[in-house]
Design brief:
Radius of gyration: 25 Å
Oligomer: single chain
Low-confidence stretches: 1-20
CATH topology of the largest domain: Rossmann fold
Helix content: 10-25%
Mean pLDDT: 93
Shape: globular
Number of helices: 17
Strand content: 25-35%
Number of domains: 2
Number of strands: 23
Length: 656
């Protein structure tokens, strides 16, 4: 691809340990934020208007819940209030059902108590605890109705996007028309007598993406965003990572298409709703099947279609709070968005947990953890929609849970002083992975070892943290290999492991595996996991990545580099016209980008690279690509004159 001068990824700035970190729990300020949420509310009840009609400029009607502060009789109080908007494809009836359960006497308190006290930590099923703790962390209040927020003097709107829930029209799946709808909903809300013209947007996943899209349009009235688990490059993050789609996409599309057939029977124009559903009964599913089974949909590549979906982060000018997690389905999206936002620190905030898409905010509110998500949302909107000087802009601005470590708050991510470092793949046995297909070493100085190591496709990686990641965290309930022990999957992998770390070392930022290979079929998938290995020999996946060999082209103009010119994040175009032939039996060089992360490799632990020939359901080539692999073995080639190596950003001196 095009040539370019190497440009450093990491810039000078405060680093962990520099004395400039802030308290991840938020200190006394966070105690005040929480007290505001938990104190006796200003308004005793909530007035609910269901199936409110919001007409769009093309005749489509969106329907929404509008929740307003109410007096003791349940009557909406007079006055205008700041308004928080959540637009969802998941059917507002079901979204509201979350609130109904949690607000039901006896049941709600029981659910909340169970979620905070149920603890299987230290058992094989510790992953169940990671899922149940989501309620106590405040996420349901962001997904559904936030009662303390409304009763403190906000209006909240939850609207179905067109073609879903009770709204008419055809689902546009984050498209141009749907984005225009959001702007029109904001205009509509600002004109209502109960709104003071100051609007915030909040939500999880799809709703977070919708909020970021809207903010990039700069609509009048939108003054703040609180986005949980959004996306900025959907084709690379989930739809076709390294050229290989995932099982998540068809499951997700099928789920939303199913939910859109559940109507509200109240104030519903049955004919319009039904005719629109019949017109598009399963939006995008047929096209998706054509793409997966025959390669017949251009969106299996990085098509211009995605340019209309991905939010233009550089155009956002309102205060934006971002939450993500290292094993989210969108991977390192939240840090990427944060770094691209053209806002001063404090006006933008980044919070990253060590969890999955389905359990945002686990542990939040507990000692040593950040405040609950609902507490942070309230503080964020109080600051930017009410102009209250509550200090939320001084939180963070980058607050991270280091994998294998603790919460840390500092000024930048990646850690500015982390040095992109080569760790070379060596044929010398490490003696730490006798269960693997091959037990190689990972060394700091190239040892000029050589050899060819064959790996065959296997289904062992189904039992891995990668599967839990792509299925939004649900398999964590199974524990074992689905959470923190990757040994079962490694029986189908080539492994390369360092010696023990002599001191605690931080990994901070994206990684790249520079790999020399030989393919024995016209296509081959290379899947990579990077693991922390504890003194007992248990490997835990920290990050992952994959690449189809035909997608190996790199666009240097969009790639990131270490000071020595190594890729730290190679950008693969993934377009149909950038595919390269895969010559059988010839040596090829690949650069496989891995999701950005921050982790602590403790003294006595090791770092390991696992290489697989498949990683379903995390990475699933479309059928034509899968057939071209022919189920053949493929080889990693270690060449003394052309070494393979992992580029990993290290802060510390592990002695490798």
């Amino acid at each position: 691809m095009t040539a370019a001068q190497p440009r450093p990824l990491l810039r000078p700035g405060p680093a962990p340990g520099s004395g400039r970190e802030r308290d991840p729990s938020g200190g006394t300020a966070a105690q005040r934020w929480r007290a505001l949420v938990e104190e006796k509310p200003l308004y005793p009840r909530i007035s609910t208007s269901a199936d409110v009609r919001i007409p769009m400029s093309d005749g489509t009607v969106l329907r929404a819940y509008v929740f307003r502060p109410a007096d003791a009789s349940g009557r909406a109080v007079a006055g205008d209030f700041p308004t928080v908007l959540n637009i969802t494809p998941y059917n507002k009836l079901l979204v509201k059902a979350v609130d109904t359960i949690l607000d039901t006497p006896l049941i709600g308190p029981l659910v909340r108590k169970f979620s905070s006290s149920f603890d299987l930590t230290g058992t094989r099923f510790d992953g169940i605890t990671e899922l149940t703790r989501v309620v106590a962390g405040g996420a349901p209040d962001l997904l559904s109705l936030n009662r303390p927020l409304v009763r403190s003097g906000y209006v909240q709107i939850i609207a179905d996007v067109r073609g879903t829930g009770s709204s008419t029209g055809t689902w546009d799946v984050l498209g141009v028309r749907e984005q225009l709808d959001t702007v029109e909903v904001i205009d509509w809300a600002a004109s209502q007598p109960w709104c003071n013209g100051r609007i915030g947007m909040a939500g999880i996943s799809y709703s977070a993406i919708n909020a970021l899209q809207a903010a990039s349009k700069k609509p009048v009235g939108l003054e703040a965003v609180f986005a949980v688990e959004g996306s900025v490059d959907i084709v690379r993050e989930i739809f076709a990572t390294g050229g290989a789609p995932s099982l998540f996409i068809p499951l997700w599309l099928a789920t939303v298409n199913g939910l859109k057939w559940i109507p509200s029977l109240r104030d519903l124009d049955t004919f319009d709703w039904l005719s629109d559903r019949v017109r598009s009964p399963a939006t995008n599913l047929v096209d998706l099947a054509k793409g997966f089974l025959a390669g017949g949909d251009p969106r299996i590549y990085d098509d211009p279609y995605y340019d209309t979906i991905d939010p233009v982060i550089e155009d956002i000018d309102v205060p934006t709070f971002l939450y993500g997690c290292w094993h989210d389905i969108f991977g390192g999206s939240a840090p990427d968005i944060y770094n691209r936002l053209p806002l001063e620190r404090g006006h933008k905030q980044l919070l990253v947990g060590d969890g999955y898409h389905g359990n945002p905010g686990i542990g939040f509110g507990e000692p040593g953890f950040p405040p609950r998500l609902d507490v942070l949302e309230r503080a964020w909107f109080d600051r930017w929609l009410r102009d209250e000087d509550n200090g939320i802009e001084n939180y963070g601005p980058v607050t991270l849970r280091q994998q294998g470590g603790d919460w840390t708050a500092h000024g930048r991510f990646p850690a500015p002083h982390a040095e992109p470092t080569r760790l070379y793949l060596s044929a010398s046995k490490s003696g730490t992975a006798p269960h693997a297909v091959s037990d190689g070493s990972l060394v700091g100085i190239a040892d000029r070892s050589s050899g060819e190591f064959s790996i065959r496709p296997t289904l062992r990686s189904v039992v891995s943290r990668d599967t839990t990641q792509v299925l939004a965290g649900l398999p964590a309930a199974l524990g074992g290999g689905f959470t923190y022990d990757n040994r079962f999957a490694e029986k189908g992998a080539l492994t390369f492991t360092t010696s023990i770390a002599h001191s605690d070392t931080v990994v901070s930022g994206p990684m790249n595996l520079h790999l020399t290979v030989v393919c024995h079929a016209p296509e081959a998938l290379w899947a990579v996991m990077v693991c922390d290995v504890d003194p007992a020999g248990t490997p835990t996946v920290l990050t992952n990545g994959a690449l189809l060999t035909s997608r190996r082209a790199v666009d240097d103009e969009l790639s990131l580099f270490a000071p020595n010119g190594d890729y730290t994040r190679p950008h693969h175009p993934l377009r149909a016209n950038t595919l390269l032939p895969v010559p059988i039996g010839e040596v090829l060089t690949l650069d496989i980008d891995l999701l950005t992360t921050e982790a602590v490799i403790e003294a006595g632990h090791r770092l390991r690279v696992d290489i697989f020939a498949t990683d379903a359901p995390r990475f699933m080539p479309i059928l034509p690509d899968l057939l071209r692999t022919r189920g053949r073995a493929q080889d990693v080639v270690l060449d003394a004159d052309d070494p393979s190596f992992l580029v990993v950003p290290l802060l510390g001196r592990p002695g490798w």
